[in-house]
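Forum: Protein Structure Q&A
Topic: Joint prediction for protein chains with partners

I've read a bunch of threads here and the consensus seems to be that you should model interacting components together rather than docking separate models afterwards. I'd like to see that in practice. Below is the full input, 285 residues plus whatever partners are listed. Could one of the regulars post the assembled result?
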Amino acid sequence: MRDTGTAVPQGEFAPSPPRRVGDSTAPILAFERVSKAYGAVVALSGVDFSVHRGEVVCLIGPSGSGKSTLLRCANALETIDGGRVRFDGVDLQDGATDVRQLRRRMGMVFQNFELFPHLSVLRNVAIGPMTVLAAPRAVAEREALELLRKVGLVDKASVYPAALSGGQQQRVAIARALAMQPDVMLFDEPTSALDPETIGEVLSVMKRLADEGMTMVVVTHEMDFAKRVANWVVVFDRGTVIEQGPPQQIFSNPQVARTREFLSHLGWHGESLATADPLVVKQRM
Ligand SMILES: Nc1ncnc2c1ncn2[C@@H]1O[C@H](COP(=O)(O)OP(=O)(O)OP(=O)(O)O)[C@@H](O)[C@H]1O
Ligand SMILES: [Mg+2]
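Posted by a regular:
Agreed with the consensus. Here's the joint model:
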C-alpha cells in the first residue's frame, strides 16, 4: 500500500540505491559516524559505510585521507573517539566485547608483509593455527600446504622468506592470514611496496579470493583492480567519505567533483590504466 503521508519529491532525480551483494542480511562490518583524531589532526570524521558478507569493498582516496586509520579501527587496533564500529553485530567499543576474539576473525594484510624471517614459508603459514587455535602441527601444516597451493607457492614451502620476491612474500602473507579462517580479509595497500612485475600475481590471488566469495575490504591505489573486482567503492577525502557506490558509478559517472579530481589526478579517465592485464596473470600452481 502506498504511504500517502510521505511527500514524494517531484521532478527530482531520486534513484533507488543500487542493490548490493549480501544486502538482504545484516552487514558483517558497519561503521557508524566514526570519528578519530590524533591531537589536532582529524583522521576520520563521521564515517558511515558498511560491508556485507561476500562483498569486495575498495577504499580509495588521496594520501592522508584516513583509509589506513579506518582499517585499523575496523579490527580495534585503534580506538575511536566517536561513533560505533560493529563486527557481525557486536559493538567493538562495548567494554564487554572480547576484541581479541573478534580480531582473529579478520585477516589483515599490510603493505609490508612482516613474515617471520626465521621460519620457513610453511611454518609462517602454520604458526597461527598452531599457537592461537591449538591446531596439531600435522593438521596445521597440511592446511598450510593447501593454502600455499592456492596462492601458487607450494614449491616454496621449505624456503625462508628472504629467498622470495616481494610478490611471493605477499602471497605467503595472504596464505598466513587465510590460515586463521577469517570471516573478512582486510588489505592495506597490499601491492604498493612491490616491484611492478610482481603486482599482478598478488592481484590475481586477491581476485581469485574474491571470486570464491571471500569478504574483503581493500585499501588500494590500483584503480583497475577496484573497478573490476570491487562490488562497492568508498571514496575518502580528508577523513570523510565523500562518495560511495558501485564501481560503475565511481569510475564512469562520479557524482562528486572531488572524486573526479582525485581520479583524473591519477590519470584515470574512465579507461584502463594498465598496459598489460594484471588480473589474468598466469601463475604456476
Ligand atoms: N599514529 C598516528 N599519529 C598521528 N597522526 C596520524 C597517525 N596515523 C595517522 N595519522 C594522521 O591521520 C591522517 C590519516 O592518515 P592515514 O594513514 O589513515 O591516511 P591514508 O589515507 O591511509 O594515507 P596513505 O594513502 O598515504 O596511506 C593523516 O593526516 C595522518 O598524518
Ligand atoms: Mg594508508
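Residues 107 and 185 are 5 Å apart (CA to CA).
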